[in-house]
Structures are given as C-alpha cells and as structure tokens.
UniProtKB/TrEMBL annotation:
Domain CBS: 84-144
Name of the protein described by the UniProt record: CBS domain-containing protein
Keyword Mitochondrion in record: no
SUPFAM superfamilies listed in its UniProt record: CBS-domain pair
Keywords: CBS domain, Repeat
Top-level taxon in the UniProt lineage: Eukaryota
Length: 394
C-alpha cells in the first residue's frame, strides 16, 4: 500500500475528492493550513481521477489569492509596519522655496510634510513634482517668479500660486483638496487603497486619539512598508499560495510594450538619451507616473529617470545655471551621477515569478522593476510598487 496525498490550494469553505479508487464517491477533504488535503492508502496500480484543477493563471486562482491578501491586510493596522524608532522631517510652510528644496536634497527626501504654525498641524506635502513645476514655471515665464525670488517666496505662497498658474492645465495634482491622511488605527488594506486611489506615494499617519496636544503626525505610510510586511506573511506559508510561482508573463500586472502582445491600461513610455529632459518630465507629470526607462538607440535599457532625480538640480542651485529646454536626458543623468554617484537599475525577466518580483520590490529603495529581454536588455515592460499593490488588491 502507498500513501498518496491530494490537495486543493484554491480556497473555498469546503472541498471533496473522488476517483475510481473511491467508486467515484466524494470524500471530504480536511483543511491543513491554507489548503484542503486528503490522504489515501492505495495499492500499486492505475487509477482514474477527475480533471486537473483550473490552470494556475486562472481568474479563480487570482481571486482566491486576492481574497487571502485582503484578509491579511484587513487584520493588521498601520502600527504593524511603522518602525518602533524612527525620525521624520517636517518643514515649516513659511520657509523660502529655495531653502526647502535644498534641505530636501541634502536629506535625500523626495517628499516632506509641511507644518502650518497658524493651524497647528500638517496641512500639505512638498514633493519632487513641486520642484519640477517650479522649474517649468521659471523656464517658461521667468518674469512671474525669478530665480532670486525663490530665496523669499515661501512654500505656502508657491502652493497657492501653483493652483493659479497651472489651474487650467492638464497637470497632475492641481486640484485644491484637503490633506489626504490616515489614522494609526486604520487597517493596512484601507491605507494601501488610500495611497493608490489618490495617486500619491506616501500618506501622513495622524493620531486617532482625542489628545490634540503636540504634533498629530506620527509617521508616513508607504507602499514599500506595506509590501514588505505582506511578503513576510506570504512567505510563512508559500506552499499555500501557488500563484506566487506563476511567471509574471501570465499575470495581469505592470505596463507592457506593444511588441509583447500584452494589453496594458496605460502606454509604456520610454525616452532616448538625446531627448529633451523637459519632454521626459512632461510625460511623468501628465501620465501620473514616477519614472520612465531610458533606452539606447537599439532599445536596450540604459537607466531609469525618476521624478525624484530632479532633486539633483537643487545642489549648488544648478537649476539656475541651465536652460531646461536645452538639457537632454543624457545631461540630466550625468548631473545625477555627479551628485549621487552611479546606481543600480533594478530589472527582472518576463519569466520571473510573482514571488521573485514581490521580493525585489519589498527591498528598501526599489520602487520599480524594468522587464527586459535577457540577452538584448530590450525593454519589455515595467512593474512598479503601485502596479504590484493594485494587482494584489484587485
């Protein structure tokens, strides 16, 4: 006799199994961990069994996986991902724009909360996108806000002027709205959805208690922190999530090039080294994306230019000495390397598994993976943190 185990890892409230060795009578399966199992003591021989379960990339399997992910996130709060000990930078909204961006560059910050002393709370965020918009304004309408005025123009005044200057343009983030925030008691699923639905990269965490003394801001919630926590939970029982072994080429995740034959909700943007940087920045703002792959003439990956890379122009007031319209992507990358040194371009293959991709994206500092062909490094697609969380939550 030989013990043979059969399993059903696709979820459900109950499961049963049958075959020629049971007389085609259904035998109940027991729940072991996250999957249903049953063991039969069979003599050697040939047996008939029901058809195989649905293919691993079936819609049902994805739906079951998303349900389990949502359960994990729903049963944990933001406290589970916030470091026990950490520091957070907050800038006074009355600071001059130039000083604020210099601080952001020196501290390596792509965004920072703004404190309004009059209201006694955090009322907004200053981001790399703001720096891009200021540069566009300086270059295209120098009389409105001269370089020297950046030393006197406050951040709060710039925020107000931004609405007036770009109010009629199709530029991301131009709507006047209250500060998007979450409470420390919110579950991780709601926090992740807040970040995704508002197309932001981080969200302030406010105290939920009635004690209004002191600064209400506890920390910033980010997608990397949520994904890292989720990956640690999934890896506790990886055998219970078979979809994690699927190749990303079979999963609806990320943005893909048309030549791959895969459909994407948005167009995959790439830029050449000789393209004007201003065009690249316009793509980033208009498409509401954080980065764009930079390719050589043959389409192979060279690097990735991100919105946060624009902060390199804040060092030594480089932005005041250049013509943004004349600056190429190659020039901008060279400035970036001079300021911050060479960096690794994080990539994956279309044959990479979902688990491998999630593991890479959960590493601090890795916010996106460029999908490349292994031999040519030709860009096939890009998978961002936002893409990963959007897929996981459905």
């Amino acid at each position: 006799m030989v013990h043979r185990r059969f399993s059903w890892p696709f979820g459900g409230q109950r499961a049963s199994f049958c075959g020629s060795f049971t007389g085609w009578r259904e035998c109940p399966m027991g729940l072991v961990g996250t999957e249903f199992q049953v063991v039969f003591d069979l003599p050697p021989g040939l047996y008939q069994m029901p058809p195989e379960p649905p293919s691993r990339n079936s819609g049902m399997q994805i739906a079951v996986f998303r349900h389990r992910v949502s359960e994990i996130l729903l049963h944990n709060t933001i406290y589970d991902v916030v470091p026990v000990s950490s520091k957070i930078a907050i800038l006074d909204a009355r600071l001059p724009v130039k000083q604020a961006f210099n601080i952001m560059h020196d501290e390596g910050l792509a965004l920072v909360p703004l404190w309004d002393d009059g209201q006694g709370t955090v009322t907004g965020m200053l981001t790399a996108s703001d720096f891009v918009l200021i540069l566009r304004k300086l270059q295209r309408n120098i009389r409105v806000l001269g370089h020297e005025e950046l030393e006197m123009h406050s951040v709060s005044a710039w925020k107000e002027a931004k609405l007036q200057y770009y109010g009629g343009a199709d530029v991301a983030g131009m709507q006047r709205r209250p500060l998007v925030h979450v409470k420390d008691s919110d579950n991780l699923r709601d926090v992740a959805l807040t970040i995704i639905q508002n197309e932001i990269s981080s969200v302030p965490i406010f105290k939920s208690s009635t004690d209004i003394s002191g600064i209400p801001l506890l920390n910033l919630a980010t997608l990397p922190g949520i994904l890292k926590f989720l990956c640690s939970k999934l890896q506790e029982q990886p055998e219970g999530y078979p979809i994690l072994r699927n190749q990303i080429s079979s999963i609806p995740i990320g943005t893909w090039s048309q030549h791959t034959g895969r459909a994407s909700t948005r167009q995959l943007r790439t830029s050449g080294l000789s393209a004007p940087l201003i065009t690249c920045l316009d793509f980033l703002l208009e498409d509401r994306i954080s980065s764009i792959p930079i390719v050589a003439d043959n389409g192979s990956l060279v690097d990735v230019y991100s919105l946060s890379d624009i902060m390199a122009l804040a060092k030594n007031d480089v932005y005041a000495c250049i013509e943004l319209e004349q600056l190429t992507v190659e020039n901008a990358l060279e400035l970036q390397y001079q300021v911050n040194g060479r960096r690794q371009c994080h990539t994956c293959l279309s044959t990479s598994t979902l688990l491998e991709v999630l593991d890479q994206l959960s590493v601090p500092g890795v916010r996106r993976l460029v999908v490349i062909e292994p031999m040519t490094r030709f860009v096939q697609g890009i998978i961002s943190l936002r893409d990963a969380i959007t897929f996981l939550l459905g």
